[in-house]
Amino acid sequence: MWRPHCLRLTRALRASTRNATSGSRSYSQDVSKAAPISTEEFWESFVAIWPYARKTDAPRIALAVSGGVDSMALASLCNSAAKQYDMFPECVGLIIDHKSREGSTEEALWVAEQLRKHAGMSSHVLPLQWPENPHEVTDFETQARRLRYRALGLACREHGLRSILIGHHADDQAETILMRLSVRRVRTGLQGILPVKEIPECYGLHGIHQSGGLDLLPNPTAEEQQHQPIRIETGGIKIIRPLLPFRKERLIATCLADEMPWIEDKTNHDQTLTDRNAIRHMLRYHQLPVALQPESLVGLSHHMQERVEEGRELAEGLLKLCKLRLDLRGGILRVNFVKARLAIDKLAATEGKLARTLATLLLARLVTLVSHVSTVKYDRFDNAVDAVFPTLQSTKISTTPKPFTVSGVYFFPSPVSEAGSILKGEFEWTIGRQAYSNASDAPPVLITPPKNLDRAVAATTPENAGYQLFDGRFWVRIVNPTDQIVHLRPLGKGDLPHITKPIRKIITRVTPGSFIETLPVLTKIDADGNESIIAIPTLGIRLGSRNFVGRIRWSIRYKKIDIGGLDLDEILASQVLDRIDGNLLRKGTERKEKLTTTTAKQPRIIDITGDTKLARRDRPQIRRPLKWKKPETRKGRDEQVIGWQ
User: Which part of the chain is the tRNA(Ile)-lysidine/2-thiocytidine synthase N-terminal domain (predicted)?
Assistant: First the structure.
């Protein structure tokens, strides 16, 4: 799909590096000839990509300002737009103090003063907290980028800002494309810098990384909470780049016209310091082939963005042909590819490469719904495509699919049955998080300290910060008012013998096979260091002493997912226990009597979790009392909704 363009440009790049000689030619126009960016041009570029465009109640927006000409021109344009357009949002400057060289703090304060003086903009200076001496860091650029974006994200969360404007421009785009060509990062990599993107380097920070949107919505009604106790996260901070259509000389001209001062970073001109500096020097001072000049590189990025979007739209059509059922309680997705496979087979007869590309995009899209990783790599889906779409196999291996793993997600096939008979050659795939191969592969245990923990220590415990991302799939918040430590960890094989058979049946119905080991459970650690399961939070099941378990509170949300144009209600499996599971749960939480040889006044005991013996008064609890509800058919759906409520 993209290979011919990549080969042509890669060959041109090789030729240019062999024949390039320093010369007086520069790709840049004389700055004196460049026109400033007009307010109208900026406004059109801004509203084309801002999610809240043309809304009168648009939220405030952050502006990342380094003091360089790019960000200062952006600040000046924002000031002009705010005066001319009532719908332009209020901007708040965020200035990073890198703390990596002498005078950085004074420089940051100077930038804040210029924003106030020339753009009428309030701002916040954000000092970076280095874990060690920044001069001793080997990968300084990488670490600085991570700390910078996390500081910006945290500041946005603190001040209620949902988007960040950044001053990347067309010259930055050309440099990025040339860098990616030089390291053979082709295909989707040639899209370059995207105008709108999720904030990077903030994985796992709630309210920043693909989360926090639910906190801005009204609380769910009792009925909504009853039918969907696990909600899907929304929101997250966006990076917005409205200056990508403009060349740098026009940004300089804008600052000159508006009398906006800026700082020149001398390190940006040292071609030996970073790869980007070297690329920038080559673009500016070397005679390059037309295909590698900035205009061509920027055009390539636009072309690739259009091609990728076209592919995604076609894959979206295939997604709508799939029959999906997503169970948030275990993060399990069941997919019937019958109609999508027929469409792929028909396309493959005339356009085999396109069919394979779309099959890859489709599978990658499905993987993101249940995977614990934040990104998927398309080049790892070859075997997955062969397994799910056997007609696309270059060498015919087998038409009977076998289980496989891709991007940390396990695919398991089961024959499709209809009207009691198995359909030959048709399979339903159960997709979920791959079981942990060893202890190092398992997610970190989330620890909630007891209430009597020293406050100074508790204040520095990250688990007290609110929602935590567990295993890349569940956002979890736990309130522990007890005097014992509470853990959130995956269910292990060794835990199953300590759970009653009825409860095990419920678990295996939600998370079949090896998926059972990825189900999160709450455990407590007693004074002797013994651990016992007290709850299965995604199922709403509590086990153990009422006096203890009843005091533990939790809130759990599923990670943010993209279902495109699908109807969420149509693909979500019911989270309400059906009649079978309701009966099993009631049996699993009934008290069991044990014969003893001691006095008859001994309390009856509960044998559910392998916990210490529990008195009759400590009956296990579920999250809500069980009450049989008459079967009813939910509007717009075929199946009956039956549950204990």
Answer: 61-281
